[in-house]
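Session log. Operator J.P. requested a structure for one protein chain; no other inputs attached. Running the standard single-chain path with token output.
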Amino acid sequence: MFTQSNYLIKQEFALFKLTSKYFINDPESNNIIAIAEENISALQKYSRLLIKKQFFGTTVEIKDAASQQIIYTIKKSGFFAPKVEVRDASGNSIGYFKSKVFSLKGMFDVFTSDNTKLADVTGEFLSWNYTFKDVTGKQLGVVTKKWSGIGKEFFTSSDNYMISIDESVKGNSNIMALLIIAGLAIDIVYRERN
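Structure written below.
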């Protein structure tokens, strides 16, 4: 599914929302490749009216835009240094993310399903630019914010950003998927404000 180096992520525009939905686009053609959408219970949705989203677990389904079939699932559990599991369409683990505790620059680590550390996701404390680096410090990819316009930026929580994966990673579908989903997880799991 994820075979190219660049993806434009567009969050669904809404003034009031209880769940998040993202469109994963080809930046060249602007065609929608996949859709990532939270799938949570009604109780969780309405609890978000009173309690911040970060206090709850969440499940995000990533569906192929053409077939609407689930291709990956992201599941967050726990609050303090939560673990975020990534599963393929068959329910098999392809890896997970583990939050860093007491780190201003680092957000989380990316692991393969056999517990091998693949990458650190690091970023500036107040900005929206992130880097994926392997254990040797080599850059594997970046996530950069795209300006959405003053109305969307200041009055909604909608975000647009680019995920760019290094050419050296192309060809390994599980690593590509993990890094792209890690880019999504920055916003969906770790930063989203609703």
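Operator note: The mean pLDDT is 81.
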